[in-house]
Amino acid sequence: MSDVVIPFRRGERATAPWVRTRLRSAPGAALALALLVAVTACLAAAFPRALERYEDAGLRRSVERTPASQSVVQLSAPAPLTVEMPQDQREELLRPATVKHDYESILGTLRRPFVPDLGQSSYGVTTSVNHEVSDPWLPRPSGQPARFALVAQAGLADHARLREGRLPRASGTLTATTPEVEAAVSADTAKSLHIRAGSVLHVPDASQGTLTVRVTGIVAPRDRDGAYWTAEPLLRTPALTRVVPADPDSPRYWLGALLLAPEAAPVLLRVEELPKRYWRLAPAPHTLHLRDLGELESAVASLESGPSLQQVREAADLLMESSTDLDDVLASYSRLRSGLSTLISIAAFGSGAVAVVVLAMAGGLAADRRRTELALLRARGASLPGLAARLLAETTVVAVPAGALGLAVAVWALPGARTLPAALAALAVTVVACAALPLRAVAAHRHIRIPALRHDVTSVRPSRRRTVAELTLVTVAVGAVVTLRRQGTSGGSGDQLIAAAPVLVGMIAALLLVRLYPLPLRASVGPAGRLRGVVGHLSLARAGRSSASAVLPLLALLTALTTASFGGSVLAGIGESRDHAALLAVGADARLDSTVGTLPAGLTDRVRRVSGVREATAVSVAHEKRPGDGRQAMPVVGVDPGGYAELTRRTGLGAFFGDVLKKDREDGAVLPAVASPGMADAHGSAPFPLTTEDGSSVTVRIVLVRDTTPAVTGADFLVVDRAGLGAAAANPTTLLVTGPEADGRALREAAGDTVSVRLRADERARYVDSPLQSGVEHLYMAAVAAGAGYAVLALLLSLLRAAPERIALLARLRTMGLTRRQGRRMLVLESLPQAVLAAAGGILTGWVAIRLLSPGMDLTAVALPASVAAPEQTPLHADAWSLMVPALSVVAVTVGIAGVQAWWAVRRGAVRELRAGDTR
Q1: Looking at the domain assignment, is residue 714 inside a domain?
Q2: pTM for the full model?
Q3: What is the domain extent for residue 195?
Q4: Using DSSP, how many helices (H) and how many strands (E) does the chain show?
Q5: Measured distance CA(72)–CA(651) in Å, rounded
Q6: pLDDT per residue over 815-854, tens digit each?
Q7: Greatest Cα-to-Cα distance within the chain, rounded to the nearest angstrom
Q8: Alpha carbons 306 and 534: distance in angstroms, whole number
Q9: Is residue 234 within 8 Å of residue 241, measured between CB atoms?
């Protein structure tokens, strides 16, 4: 009885020792798998964390860069004006304790994700209108008396440093009948309005009398750009305002703020009947996350005019009003994120697909290496489920710790982001790595075949099942691409199709190329056999005997090459867009404009001697010249025809030949002009008079129309020969410098204080406005690099798969007289067909993917900030370098690996490969 039980128990416990034994017998393979899984899991986990960090940083930057007057949520309520309410109750509503209680009640109604920054939020009481102060010692720019807002804002001592005097106080209990009150002013207000500590101002009150305001201190903001001071900029900086803002000829007056103690708020009832209570809620930047953007937009909208505002009214005041531009800021960032989401998804899909294929190839390589062992186990009665369970346990022991290690490294390297997306990405990598070997082994050993049959690419005919599967995949991929072409990027599904387009195109190309690959090999073996020498014939024959299961390596290479080509074209398009926008803004590599009229004498010669300057073109730009009828002002550019025409050809901005601006002999009194389309539509081709700055008049005629010109950044212009203008109008005002490597510091030194210098490189550098924009570029470069690395790894795995057979064949041929050089040539030529196929297919698929995606893609969102007016859309177009370099790199790597294999085979010698009983 015991003899029956013991074998059963031993068989039941044999799994763990078998796994240990297999790991000990091949530690190198286990270590390689662990390294591959750890690196892949780390990259997969790092991608969502890095993206989230960039997205959150971009959102915070958008809010922080928005003026606080627009980003804060401002709640306000007037002081009640009712017959039933006594004056003392109205005063009580304005006292600090009551306003603070309302502030705390408002905070109690707020819900995440909108979280106010308590350090920068503010509350208080202010006048509803600005009151004239007629004290004679205050400055009057246009004879208008200065005006002041009286503000009793809480927290002045915590947010200001005392420059002079002391902070205002409220002695006793102040009421609406108090005749005098103390105040402070900011340092900027004191400087502009000549106020000092001890100055006295008289503010008219509602009863025809005056309220005396004694300035006791001058304060400076602790955080000058904080929301406490900038939510209402008047608190910090006075404004020189016009009586009629829209009229440039309207008289001006100074507008400032007097900062009262919070306890003095009831005094404002003496000045006006309806002083305003306010509560300004500044958003806390560190609490802003893109994942909460939708809820945050809803919360802000609800607080502006919705249920949240109603709750605030019930908690504080039924007359509460709310206003903010924070919703517009959030919507703008949401549009930016939406414009970049497609590019991010393409990078993720492309590199992710290559990584999955490489993991599958690693499992396939392990299954091929152990093909004899697994076939023997099947021949001895091992079941498919039992075999798959043993292999799954073997890979799980290696892959799970490696995946956890990769996740831990990603979390440690990129803190401050959610762990769940990273954990799911690492888990997906681990599952693929664990399942690759068992699935490949089950697929290869479904049936017991002894001896193993050859699977040459030129001899094996695809089965019907494979044909149906391939046709199904191609049909799905073609349908998705056709849908993409019809739908574009208008919907969410279109975005997913765009993201998967490179992988779909690579899948179609891989299946088609694998089908077509045997045809040229079969056709070329015969003619190659009639050539002198055996290397060419042997190489083609060996290429034809490669494994027929080449879809995965080719798919990995094509997907990586397509992603690299697409990514390189995207980055090239972004760079070209920024270069062009910077060129339009500057007009050349550098631009020097006089701030006092004309350029200093000798400046052109000094600039030409600056290091890196190739040419300097002087022009005169007048922005106030008018045609003879006086209806329209236009910028007129006086140029030297030859030099300026050469500049237009170098920059590509409205290129023309200098002869166009030369006077016609038959009509010498008329100046030819190059004009913008708007000017051409307004004046046609007939001559018309033009009044210059010195009062003289010239007659011009438009002979050529161009959309742009280097000297003017606007849409309208006229370019004429400055020799035909008056002396004053011909004086140069602008110098356009050619030379990408011009020394900016030397240019500024040569220009002096009266000339402003703008560099094209500096203009281009400021176009990266949001961390999300730069983050997308970095992620794209990382994805392209990762895809290239996995492509090389896929190529290496593909070559390693046939390495033992190649080395054995080379050893046998060496005994037959094959030289070392011939052996190297044979291995290199044997590897070239598949590499050339992958390279050609990569160029084709990259070009096709770009052609498919370009109609629905605009790179303007990632190339230029929202503050820059883009002259036109930035479509995606194929970049030749991005298409050719990755493809040629595949061929170079293939040749290099084959050469290393040949060197290693020769170095090892032939004794080991020719041992007795070798059946390979």
Answers
A1: yes
A2: 0.78
A3: 67-324
A4: 32, 21
A5: 44
A6: 776 676 776 777 777 777 777 877 888 888 888 878 877 7
A7: 127
A8: 85
A9: no
